[in-house]
Design a protein that fits this description.
By secondary structure, this protein is of the alpha+beta class. About 35% of the residues lie in helices and about 15% in strands. The chain folds into 2 domains: about 120 residues, no CATH class; about 220 residues, q2cbj1_9rhob like domain (Jelly Rolls, Sandwich). A 6-stranded antiparallel sheet has the order 3-10-7-12-6-4. The protein has a 3-stranded antiparallel sheet with strand order 9-8-11, with no helix packed on it. Strands 1-2 form a two-stranded parallel sheet. β1, α3 and β2 form a beta-alpha-beta unit. The protein starts with a helix and ends in a 10-residue tail after the last strand. The structure holds 2-oxoglutaric acid.
Length: about 375
Protein backbone atom coordinates (compact mmCIF):
# COMPACT_ATOMS: atom_id res chain seq x y z
CA UNK A 1 0.00 0.00 0.00
CA UNK A 2 1.03 3.55 -0.62
CA UNK A 3 2.82 4.58 2.60
CA UNK A 4 1.25 8.02 2.96
CA UNK A 5 -2.21 6.66 2.45
CA UNK A 6 -1.39 4.07 5.08
CA UNK A 7 -0.18 6.80 7.40
CA UNK A 8 -3.34 8.83 6.95
CA UNK A 9 -5.51 5.78 7.37
CA UNK A 10 -3.79 4.13 10.31
CA UNK A 11 -3.37 7.22 12.30
CA UNK A 12 -5.63 10.18 12.12
CA UNK A 13 -7.73 10.67 9.06
CA UNK A 14 -11.13 9.16 9.51
CA UNK A 15 -13.33 7.50 6.98
CA UNK A 16 -16.92 8.59 6.55
CA UNK A 17 -18.02 5.18 7.82
CA UNK A 18 -15.94 5.38 10.98
CA UNK A 19 -16.81 9.03 11.44
CA UNK A 20 -20.41 8.20 12.04
CA UNK A 21 -19.63 5.55 14.62
CA UNK A 22 -16.75 7.18 16.45
CA UNK A 23 -16.39 10.20 18.61
CA UNK A 24 -14.11 12.87 17.24
CA UNK A 25 -12.04 15.09 19.47
CA UNK A 26 -8.97 17.28 19.43
CA UNK A 27 -5.61 15.88 20.46
CA UNK A 28 -4.67 17.71 23.59
CA UNK A 29 -0.95 17.00 23.36
CA UNK A 30 0.85 19.76 21.49
CA UNK A 31 3.82 19.18 19.16
CA UNK A 32 5.91 21.17 21.59
CA UNK A 33 5.59 18.66 24.42
CA UNK A 34 8.65 16.44 24.78
CA UNK A 35 9.86 13.61 27.01
CA UNK A 36 13.24 12.11 27.87
CA UNK A 37 14.47 12.21 24.29
CA UNK A 38 13.58 15.85 23.80
CA UNK A 39 12.00 15.19 20.38
CA UNK A 40 9.15 17.55 19.56
CA UNK A 41 5.96 16.07 18.09
CA UNK A 42 6.83 12.53 19.27
CA UNK A 43 4.41 12.71 22.19
CA UNK A 44 1.64 14.09 20.00
CA UNK A 45 2.20 11.28 17.49
CA UNK A 46 2.07 8.68 20.28
CA UNK A 47 -1.08 10.27 21.78
CA UNK A 48 -2.84 10.33 18.41
CA UNK A 49 -2.04 6.69 17.75
CA UNK A 50 -3.24 5.56 21.17
CA UNK A 51 -6.41 7.61 20.81
CA UNK A 52 -7.07 5.88 17.51
CA UNK A 53 -6.49 2.54 19.22
CA UNK A 54 -9.19 3.41 21.74
CA UNK A 55 -11.60 4.32 18.98
CA UNK A 56 -11.29 8.06 19.53
CA UNK A 57 -10.95 9.97 16.31
CA UNK A 58 -8.67 12.93 16.63
CA UNK A 59 -8.90 16.10 14.62
CA UNK A 60 -5.61 16.37 12.70
CA UNK A 61 -3.90 19.73 12.56
CA UNK A 62 -2.89 20.88 9.07
CA UNK A 63 0.75 20.05 9.78
CA UNK A 64 0.20 16.57 11.28
CA UNK A 65 0.57 14.51 8.10
CA UNK A 66 3.86 16.21 7.18
CA UNK A 67 5.21 16.18 10.74
CA UNK A 68 4.34 12.50 11.21
CA UNK A 69 6.16 11.64 8.03
CA UNK A 70 9.27 13.61 8.98
CA UNK A 71 9.20 12.33 12.54
CA UNK A 72 9.19 8.68 11.49
CA UNK A 73 11.87 9.04 8.85
CA UNK A 74 13.94 11.41 10.98
CA UNK A 75 13.99 8.82 13.79
CA UNK A 76 14.63 5.89 11.45
CA UNK A 77 11.27 4.31 12.21
CA UNK A 78 9.32 2.35 9.61
CA UNK A 79 5.66 3.29 9.52
CA UNK A 80 4.09 -0.17 9.58
CA UNK A 81 6.36 -1.51 12.31
CA UNK A 82 5.82 1.56 14.49
CA UNK A 83 2.05 1.54 14.11
CA UNK A 84 1.93 -2.20 14.77
CA UNK A 85 3.88 -1.67 17.97
CA UNK A 86 1.65 1.16 19.16
CA UNK A 87 -1.54 -0.71 18.33
CA UNK A 88 -0.46 -4.02 19.83
CA UNK A 89 1.59 -3.00 22.86
CA UNK A 90 -0.14 0.29 23.75
CA UNK A 91 3.07 1.50 25.47
CA UNK A 92 3.24 4.40 27.91
CA UNK A 93 5.07 7.36 26.39
CA UNK A 94 8.21 6.49 28.38
CA UNK A 95 8.08 2.93 27.07
CA UNK A 96 7.55 4.17 23.54
CA UNK A 97 10.60 6.42 23.79
CA UNK A 98 12.66 3.44 25.01
CA UNK A 99 11.40 1.40 22.06
CA UNK A 100 12.42 4.21 19.67
CA UNK A 101 15.94 4.24 21.13
CA UNK A 102 16.19 0.44 20.97
CA UNK A 103 15.24 0.56 17.27
CA UNK A 104 18.17 2.92 16.82
CA UNK A 105 20.64 0.51 18.33
CA UNK A 106 20.63 2.29 21.67
CA UNK A 107 21.39 5.83 20.54
CA UNK A 108 19.99 8.56 18.35
CA UNK A 109 22.54 11.03 17.01
CA UNK A 110 21.85 14.42 18.66
CA UNK A 111 22.04 16.09 15.25
CA UNK A 112 19.07 14.05 14.04
CA UNK A 113 17.01 15.27 16.97
CA UNK A 114 18.27 18.81 16.41
CA UNK A 115 17.18 18.65 12.78
CA UNK A 116 13.70 17.39 13.60
CA UNK A 117 13.24 19.98 16.31
CA UNK A 118 14.33 22.79 13.99
CA UNK A 119 11.73 21.75 11.46
CA UNK A 120 8.96 21.29 14.03
CA UNK A 121 9.75 24.64 15.63
CA UNK A 122 10.02 26.39 12.24
CA UNK A 123 13.58 27.46 13.01
CA UNK A 124 16.65 27.45 10.74
CA UNK A 125 19.15 24.60 11.08
CA UNK A 126 22.15 25.12 13.33
CA UNK A 127 25.53 25.74 11.71
CA UNK A 128 26.63 22.09 11.84
CA UNK A 129 23.52 20.91 9.99
CA UNK A 130 23.66 23.76 7.52
CA UNK A 131 27.32 22.96 6.80
CA UNK A 132 26.53 19.27 6.19
CA UNK A 133 23.94 20.25 3.59
CA UNK A 134 26.27 22.80 1.99
CA UNK A 135 28.86 20.05 1.60
CA UNK A 136 26.42 17.83 -0.29
CA UNK A 137 25.36 20.79 -2.47
CA UNK A 138 29.00 21.58 -3.25
CA UNK A 139 30.11 17.98 -3.90
CA UNK A 140 30.64 16.85 -7.51
CA UNK A 141 27.57 15.63 -9.37
CA UNK A 142 27.08 11.86 -9.38
CA UNK A 143 24.47 11.84 -12.17
CA UNK A 144 26.00 12.76 -15.51
CA UNK A 145 24.32 14.76 -18.29
CA UNK A 146 23.56 11.43 -19.94
CA UNK A 147 21.98 10.08 -16.73
CA UNK A 148 19.87 13.21 -16.46
CA UNK A 149 18.76 12.86 -20.10
CA UNK A 150 17.69 9.29 -19.31
CA UNK A 151 15.75 10.69 -16.35
CA UNK A 152 14.03 13.34 -18.50
CA UNK A 153 13.25 10.91 -21.30
CA UNK A 154 12.41 7.72 -19.42
CA UNK A 155 11.60 8.81 -15.88
CA UNK A 156 14.21 6.56 -14.32
CA UNK A 157 17.95 6.62 -13.82
CA UNK A 158 20.55 4.07 -12.71
CA UNK A 159 23.00 5.44 -10.17
CA UNK A 160 26.04 3.21 -10.72
CA UNK A 161 27.96 2.24 -7.60
CA UNK A 162 25.43 3.87 -5.29
CA UNK A 163 27.03 1.74 -2.60
CA UNK A 164 30.21 -0.32 -2.98
CA UNK A 165 30.08 -3.96 -4.04
CA UNK A 166 31.41 -4.91 -0.60
CA UNK A 167 28.65 -2.98 1.11
CA UNK A 168 26.05 -4.56 -1.21
CA UNK A 169 27.47 -7.99 -0.39
CA UNK A 170 27.42 -7.28 3.36
CA UNK A 171 23.80 -6.09 3.12
CA UNK A 172 22.84 -9.15 1.11
CA UNK A 173 24.47 -11.37 3.75
CA UNK A 174 22.44 -9.58 6.43
CA UNK A 175 19.23 -10.30 4.49
CA UNK A 176 20.08 -14.01 4.26
CA UNK A 177 20.86 -14.13 7.94
CA UNK A 178 17.62 -12.37 8.87
CA UNK A 179 15.63 -14.81 6.74
CA UNK A 180 17.56 -17.81 8.08
CA UNK A 181 18.00 -19.02 4.51
CA UNK A 182 21.14 -20.08 2.68
CA UNK A 183 22.14 -18.50 -0.63
CA UNK A 184 23.60 -21.80 -1.84
CA UNK A 185 20.62 -23.97 -0.77
CA UNK A 186 17.71 -23.20 -3.11
CA UNK A 187 15.36 -25.42 -1.10
CA UNK A 188 15.72 -23.01 1.85
CA UNK A 189 14.36 -20.10 -0.26
CA UNK A 190 10.89 -21.62 -0.32
CA UNK A 191 10.62 -23.21 3.11
CA UNK A 192 8.88 -20.31 4.83
CA UNK A 193 7.30 -17.00 3.91
CA UNK A 194 9.67 -14.11 3.22
CA UNK A 195 7.14 -11.64 4.59
CA UNK A 196 4.34 -10.04 2.64
CA UNK A 197 4.91 -11.56 -0.79
CA UNK A 198 8.54 -10.75 -1.54
CA UNK A 199 8.67 -7.89 1.01
CA UNK A 200 10.56 -8.27 4.28
CA UNK A 201 10.09 -6.28 7.44
CA UNK A 202 13.83 -5.87 7.86
CA UNK A 203 14.92 -2.31 8.58
CA UNK A 204 17.41 -1.82 11.38
CA UNK A 205 20.56 -3.70 10.43
CA UNK A 206 23.69 -1.47 10.49
CA UNK A 207 24.30 -2.16 6.78
CA UNK A 208 20.81 -0.91 5.88
CA UNK A 209 21.36 2.18 8.00
CA UNK A 210 24.73 2.86 6.41
CA UNK A 211 23.19 2.63 2.93
CA UNK A 212 20.55 5.19 3.91
CA UNK A 213 23.38 7.54 4.83
CA UNK A 214 25.34 7.17 1.58
CA UNK A 215 26.58 10.59 0.44
CA UNK A 216 26.54 9.39 -3.19
CA UNK A 217 22.86 8.47 -2.97
CA UNK A 218 22.10 11.74 -1.18
CA UNK A 219 23.80 13.68 -3.97
CA UNK A 220 21.83 11.85 -6.69
CA UNK A 221 18.52 12.71 -5.03
CA UNK A 222 19.77 16.27 -4.46
CA UNK A 223 20.33 16.60 -8.21
CA UNK A 224 16.84 15.32 -8.98
CA UNK A 225 15.06 17.40 -6.35
CA UNK A 226 17.24 20.52 -6.74
CA UNK A 227 18.04 20.61 -3.02
CA UNK A 228 20.19 18.66 -0.57
CA UNK A 229 17.75 19.29 2.26
CA UNK A 230 16.18 15.85 1.98
CA UNK A 231 14.86 13.17 4.31
CA UNK A 232 15.64 9.48 3.75
CA UNK A 233 12.88 6.92 4.17
CA UNK A 234 13.23 3.90 6.45
CA UNK A 235 11.98 1.39 3.97
CA UNK A 236 11.86 -2.38 3.55
CA UNK A 237 14.01 -4.96 1.77
CA UNK A 238 12.81 -7.73 -0.51
CA UNK A 239 13.87 -11.10 -1.82
CA UNK A 240 12.36 -12.28 -5.10
CA UNK A 241 13.18 -15.98 -5.58
CA UNK A 242 13.19 -17.75 -8.95
CA UNK A 243 9.88 -19.20 -10.05
CA UNK A 244 9.58 -22.98 -9.86
CA UNK A 245 6.91 -25.53 -10.74
CA UNK A 246 5.31 -24.74 -7.38
CA UNK A 247 6.33 -21.13 -6.70
CA UNK A 248 4.98 -18.17 -8.71
CA UNK A 249 6.25 -14.60 -8.55
CA UNK A 250 4.78 -12.98 -5.43
CA UNK A 251 5.70 -9.37 -6.16
CA UNK A 252 3.21 -6.66 -7.01
CA UNK A 253 2.23 -6.31 -10.67
CA UNK A 254 2.61 -2.88 -12.31
CA UNK A 255 1.13 -0.20 -10.10
CA UNK A 256 1.49 3.37 -8.83
CA UNK A 257 2.15 4.18 -5.18
CA UNK A 258 0.53 7.59 -5.53
CA UNK A 259 -3.04 8.71 -5.88
CA UNK A 260 -4.21 8.96 -9.49
CA UNK A 261 -6.48 11.85 -8.60
CA UNK A 262 -5.18 15.32 -9.58
CA UNK A 263 -3.39 17.43 -8.52
CA UNK A 264 -0.18 15.54 -9.21
CA UNK A 265 3.09 16.37 -7.52
CA UNK A 266 6.64 15.40 -8.40
CA UNK A 267 7.98 12.44 -6.43
CA UNK A 268 10.70 9.81 -6.55
CA UNK A 269 11.11 6.18 -5.47
CA UNK A 270 14.17 3.99 -5.44
CA UNK A 271 15.82 0.65 -4.77
CA UNK A 272 19.37 -0.62 -4.44
CA UNK A 273 20.27 -3.93 -6.03
CA UNK A 274 22.18 -6.00 -3.48
CA UNK A 275 23.23 -8.66 -6.00
CA UNK A 276 23.84 -8.50 -9.75
CA UNK A 277 20.44 -8.38 -11.40
CA UNK A 278 20.14 -9.28 -15.06
CA UNK A 279 16.75 -8.55 -16.68
CA UNK A 280 15.48 -12.11 -16.24
CA UNK A 281 16.39 -12.24 -12.53
CA UNK A 282 13.16 -10.66 -11.29
CA UNK A 283 14.41 -7.15 -12.09
CA UNK A 284 12.49 -3.98 -11.30
CA UNK A 285 10.31 -3.09 -14.28
CA UNK A 286 8.57 0.12 -15.32
CA UNK A 287 6.94 1.78 -18.30
CA UNK A 288 9.65 4.20 -19.51
CA UNK A 289 8.45 7.70 -20.39
CA UNK A 290 5.04 7.31 -18.75
CA UNK A 291 5.77 10.27 -16.45
CA UNK A 292 5.44 12.51 -19.51
CA UNK A 293 2.02 11.20 -20.45
CA UNK A 294 0.35 10.10 -17.23
CA UNK A 295 -1.94 13.13 -17.04
CA UNK A 296 -3.06 13.05 -20.70
CA UNK A 297 -3.47 9.26 -20.51
CA UNK A 298 -5.72 9.59 -17.47
CA UNK A 299 -7.69 12.45 -19.03
CA UNK A 300 -8.25 10.38 -22.19
CA UNK A 301 -9.71 7.31 -20.45
CA UNK A 302 -13.40 6.63 -21.07
CA UNK A 303 -15.56 7.89 -18.19
CA UNK A 304 -15.88 5.37 -15.39
CA UNK A 305 -12.71 3.46 -16.30
CA UNK A 306 -10.56 2.56 -13.33
CA UNK A 307 -7.00 3.44 -14.42
CA UNK A 308 -5.50 0.79 -12.15
CA UNK A 309 -7.47 -1.94 -13.92
CA UNK A 310 -5.72 -1.29 -17.25
CA UNK A 311 -3.00 -3.80 -18.02
CA UNK A 312 0.14 -1.97 -19.14
CA UNK A 313 2.43 -5.01 -18.82
CA UNK A 314 3.13 -5.05 -22.54
CA UNK A 315 4.79 -1.62 -22.25
CA UNK A 316 7.00 -2.47 -19.28
CA UNK A 317 10.77 -2.91 -19.49
CA UNK A 318 12.99 -4.66 -16.94
CA UNK A 319 15.88 -2.55 -15.64
CA UNK A 320 18.99 -4.68 -15.24
CA UNK A 321 21.90 -3.45 -13.13
CA UNK A 322 24.69 -4.67 -10.90
CA UNK A 323 25.11 -5.18 -7.17
CA UNK A 324 25.43 -1.76 -5.53
CA UNK A 325 23.60 0.11 -8.33
CA UNK A 326 20.46 2.03 -7.50
CA UNK A 327 17.40 2.56 -9.68
CA UNK A 328 15.55 5.80 -8.98
CA UNK A 329 12.24 6.33 -10.72
CA UNK A 330 9.66 9.08 -11.09
CA UNK A 331 6.57 8.01 -9.14
CA UNK A 332 4.34 8.71 -12.17
CA UNK A 333 5.76 5.53 -13.76
CA UNK A 334 3.73 2.31 -13.50
CA UNK A 335 6.25 -0.08 -11.95
CA UNK A 336 6.70 -3.36 -10.09
CA UNK A 337 9.01 -6.31 -9.73
CA UNK A 338 9.06 -9.00 -12.42
CA UNK A 339 8.98 -12.79 -12.33
CA UNK A 340 12.40 -14.26 -11.67
CA UNK A 341 13.32 -16.72 -14.44
CA UNK A 342 16.95 -17.21 -13.37
CA UNK A 343 18.55 -19.48 -10.81
CA UNK A 344 19.28 -16.94 -8.06
CA UNK A 345 17.00 -14.57 -6.09
CA UNK A 346 16.88 -10.84 -6.67
CA UNK A 347 17.54 -8.98 -3.42
CA UNK A 348 17.00 -5.25 -2.93
CA UNK A 349 16.77 -2.48 -0.35
CA UNK A 350 14.17 0.22 -0.98
CA UNK A 351 15.18 3.80 -0.30
CA UNK A 352 13.76 7.17 -1.19
CA UNK A 353 14.52 10.79 -0.30
CA UNK A 354 12.22 13.79 -0.30
CA UNK A 355 12.22 17.41 0.84
CA UNK A 356 10.20 18.75 3.73
CA UNK A 357 7.80 20.56 1.37
CA UNK A 358 6.95 17.28 -0.37
CA UNK A 359 3.27 17.08 -1.27
CA UNK A 360 1.05 14.11 -1.93
CA UNK A 361 -2.61 13.92 -2.70
CA UNK A 362 -3.92 11.90 0.24
CA UNK A 363 -7.30 11.43 -1.45
CA UNK A 364 -6.69 8.03 -2.94
CA UNK A 365 -7.86 7.08 -6.42
O1 LIG B 1 10.62 -4.52 -6.06
C1 LIG B 1 10.45 -3.96 -7.14
O2 LIG B 1 11.12 -4.21 -8.14
C2 LIG B 1 9.37 -2.93 -7.29
C3 LIG B 1 9.05 -2.27 -6.02
C4 LIG B 1 7.75 -1.58 -6.02
O3 LIG B 1 6.86 -1.93 -6.72
C5 LIG B 1 7.54 -0.46 -5.12
O4 LIG B 1 8.48 -0.06 -4.43
O5 LIG B 1 6.43 0.09 -5.12
Amino acid sequence: MWASQYLADLTFAYSAKEGRAMKKQAVLVSSEETGQLGVRHLKRFWAQALAKRQGILTEPAAHDWRFNNLLLNGLGLPLQETMRHLMQAAPTFEEFEQWVVAKNNGQIAPLRIERLNSVFAGKPYNEQLAEQLRQIEASPNVLSEQDLSCWQENGYVILRGAITKEQAQATEAAVWEALEMQPDKPASWYEKPIGQGIMMDFYHHPTLRANRQSARIHKAFAQLWGTADLWATTDRTSLNPPETATYCHQGTPLHWDMSLRPPFYFGTQGLIYLCDTPAEQGAFQCVPGFHRRLESWLAGLPTGTSPRSIDLTGLAQPIAAEAGDMVIWHHFLPHGSSANRSSYPRIVQYLNMYPMEFKENVEWL
